[in-house]
């Protein structure tokens, strides 16, 4: 009886080890695949966001006939901020924005913000700076449109679709998430940028 029992005991001890090894390998492979999928998802979002900012800069600079009328671009002598800021009709900074409309400093800061954030996102470098600058830009534009208002200063309906969360808030959150996720490391120069000596000394440049 002992001769017959011995191989059965060996089989009972050895068989369970094979599925455990396969499960561990499968879990590791799944983890790598998931990490890669997230990396490419964030990189795709980063590139799309970069395209949004760069398009806004190019359209306002050259007047492609979309948001900026042809012949009224920045290079034609038009002001990137005058139309928008002079049209502010609600909110606590209405008169302030009217006074800024068309000022050279406002034009330059606005356009520099669009270009800088757009280039940083496309290249995948300086995402923390881009997130800070982009969030500040989105916050000012949110205040200018002032979604909480039900009525404009002339008494007409504001047609606001949400009193708090609009696309400016979503863009700002997306910029912050991209910076926290180091989204420039995939399909971008983020990894190379992070290894530069001056960036390693000043991590806020990441």
Structural class by secondary-structure content: mainly alpha
Tell me, briefly, the overall form: globular
The quaternary organization reads as single chain
The H/E string reads HHHHHHHHH
Largest sheet: none
Number of strands: 0
Strand content: under 5%
Distance linking N and C termini: 71 Å
Enumerate how many helices there are, as a single number.
Answer: 9
The residue-averaged pLDDT reads: 89
- Rg computed from alpha carbons, rounded to a whole number of angstroms: 27 Å
| Share of residues in helices | 55-70%
Uncertain stretches of 5 or more adjacent residues: 5-9
In short:
The protein has 206 residues and is mainly alpha-helical.
Structure description:
- The protein is mostly helical.
- The protein has 9 helices and no strands.
- The longest helix is centred in the N-terminal third of the chain and has 46 residues.
- The termini are far apart.
Please write out the topology.
Elements: H1 2-14, H2 17-62, H3 82-86, H4 94-100, H5 104-123, H6 127-145, H7 167-180, H8 190-194, H9 197-201
Search tags:
206 residues, mainly alpha, 9 helices, 65% helix
């Amino acid at each position: 009886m002992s001769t017959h029992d011995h191989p059965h005991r060996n089989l009972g001890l050895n068989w369970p080890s094979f599925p455990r090894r396969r499960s561990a390998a499968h879990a590791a492979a799944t983890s790598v695949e998931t990490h890669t999928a997230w990396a490419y998802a964030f990189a795709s979002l980063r590139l799309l966001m970069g395209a949004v900012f760069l398009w806004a800069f190019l359209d306002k600079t050259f007047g492609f006939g979309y948001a900026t009328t042809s012949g009224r671009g920045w290079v034609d002598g038009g002001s990137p901020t005058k139309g928008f800021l002079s049209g502010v009709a609600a909110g606590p900074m209405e008169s302030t924005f009217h006074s800024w409309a068309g000022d050279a400093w406002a034009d330059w800061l606005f356009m520099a913000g669009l270009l800088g954030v757009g280039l940083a996102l496309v290249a995948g470098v300086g995402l923390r700076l881009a997130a800070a600058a982009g969030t500040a830009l989105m916050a000012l534009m949110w205040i200018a449109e002032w979604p909480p208002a039900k009525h404009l200063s002339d008494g007409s309906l504001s047609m606001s679709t949400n009193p708090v969360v609009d696309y400016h808030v979503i863009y700002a959150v997306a910029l912050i998430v991209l910076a926290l996720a180091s989204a420039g490391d995939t399909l971008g120069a983020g990894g190379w940028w992070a290894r530069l000596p001056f960036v390693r000394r000043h991590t806020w440049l990441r």
